[in-house]
Amino acid sequence: MVTGPSFEEMLHPQTIDPKIRADALAALENDPLNPLNLYNITWRDPQNQIYHIVLPRELTGVDANIVLIYGMHFPSGSHKVGAAYSVLLEKQLLGEVDPNAHTLVWPSTGNYGIGGAFIGCRMEYDSIVVLPEEMSQERFDRITRYGARIIRTAGSESNVKEIYDEVKRLRGSDPKIRVLNQFEVMGNYRFHYHVTGNTLVELAAELQDEGIGAGMISAYVSAMGSAGTIAAGDRLKQIWPDHKIVGLEPIQCPTLYNNGYGAHEIQGIGDKHVTWIHNVFNMDALMAIDDMDALNGLRILAEERGRQVLRERFGLAEGMARQLSQALGISGICNIIGAIKTAKFYNLGRQDVVVTVATDAMERYGSVMKQLRRQHGPLDEARATAIIDGVFHRAGTDWVVEGSREARERWHNLKYYTWVEQQGKTVAELDAQRDPAWWIGHQERVAEIDKRLLAQRRQ
Questions:
Q1: Is 3.40.50.2300 the CATH classification of the domain at 45-76+192-405?
Q2: What is the pLDDT of residues 310-323, one digit of tens each?
Q3: What residue ranges of the chain are covered by domains with CATH 3.40.50.1100?
Q4: From the centroid of its chain, how far is CA 53?
Q5: What is the DSSP code (8-state) at residue 401?
Q6: In whole angstroms, what is the distance from residue 357 CA to residue 370 CA?
Q7: Which of 17, 146, 193, 345 is 20 to 30 Å apart from 64, CA to CA?
Q8: In degrees rounded to 5, what are phi and psi of residue 372?
Q9: pLDDT tens across 67-95, in order?
Q10: Tens digits of per-residue pLDDT, 124-170?
Q11: Residue 185 and residue 141: Cα distance in Å, rounded?
């Protein structure tokens, strides 16, 4: 069976066999569908430097150092490929799936499905991605290019219930079907806890060596889709107990914020339920972000007029404007706004580091930007200035709920309606998540999975 790196090798790619690492890096440039690209699942570049940007204060308007790690250089163009790989690797090593016997189903609103199409087909599985029909065209194009089939369900980002209904139908229709549900399977959690979390621990030290921060991360900010990415915060809180984990969701679909619902346009987050893998007892605050702020913020970077205003009126360096225009997608802008709000809410200063994430990049949203231009007309200087000032510099501390004992209990209880009533979990299984030992047990399985993979290599 085709496999790739261990968790430790994804964290430290320099530990991969040098020949394999060199061949994988060559494939990333010249042969993107080669299975060797599995060994490029890492937050580090060919020189083993972490992909990150220290955002300029000309953009953020705050004293705290806001640092963005970005996933555009992962195979498939998003760090979600790491979660997809970890989920499939674990199931394969445990004997739960076999490329000669099973068809994989990847439920997704976008990037995980793209990652699943990439991973599943490279590991020689027949793969189906179940995806809402209103997602960006670029998502569908990538899935098809990677070799997976697509089933389109009704709705958009927040219509996960419709995805679950289709997955249930598929499972019942064919005994070969195996569902790899990012919202439920702990391989997703483990990838971000171990690989993303420990990458950030190491980044804090590297930043300090550069004169940025005090060797720690004060806050980690992540919007929740599957709630895989936010799991990195669990690792950071183990290193720094006073560290703040801040989750984000759309104002237009404020599920955890006030048990709300609705549709929104921040593709990749706000899926109208509390996921099984989300450790809500560790979340220190929840913030809601307006989807139009995220869209307009991205438009500033997508259009030359917006970048010109950033340069000429706000003093942003041309190279930085160009880099940000390539590295960010809609949810990345959402995360930056949340990081700015976090810095203001906790009164963080020049010695503090706030880290957030860009899951994917601009190349995935060209059709969305075209639609914005059709709907709202050209971007002139006055409008661009107003967006930059209003979306970034004037981001406030409204729409914030702190993670009190009562709030965390409420967030946890919301899991019941999806996971017990609809997805077959038991109340006992749900109650088990209240114990920190439940989460620690899943974290410790990283070593077991790596041991199994190394044993397979020796066969």
A1: no
A2: 999 999 999 999 99
A3: 45-76+192-405
A4: 17
A5: E
A6: 24
A7: 193
A8: -60, -45
A9: 999 999 999 999 999 999 999 999 999 99
A10: 999 999 998 888 888 899 999 999 999 999 887 778 889 989 999 99
A11: 26
CB distance 436 to 281 below 8 Å: yes
CB atoms within 10 A of CB 23: 15
Q: Residue 374: exposed, middle, or buried by beta-carbon count in 10 A (0-12, 13-18, 19+)?
A: exposed
Cα angle for residues 276, 280, 286 (degrees, 5° grid): 120
Do 309 and 385 form a contact (C-beta atoms < 8 A)?
A: yes
Block residue for tokens 């020189």: 47
Would you list the DSSP string of 5-74? --HHHHH-GGGS-HHHHHHHHHHHHH-TTSGGGGGG-SSB-TTS-B-EEE--HHHH-SSSEEEEEE-TTS
Task: Name the pTM for this structure.
Answer: 0.96
Residue 110: is its pLDDT beyond 90?
A: no
**pLDDT tens digits along 228-258:** 999 999 999 999 999 999 999 999 999 999 9
3-state secondary structure of 252: coil
Bridge partners, residue 67, by sequence: 54, 355
Alpha-carbon distance of 288 to 446, in angstroms, equals 32
Q: Which residue has the tokens 């399985």?
A: 445
**The pair of three-digit structure tokens given for residue 25, joined into one six-digit string:** 């890096």
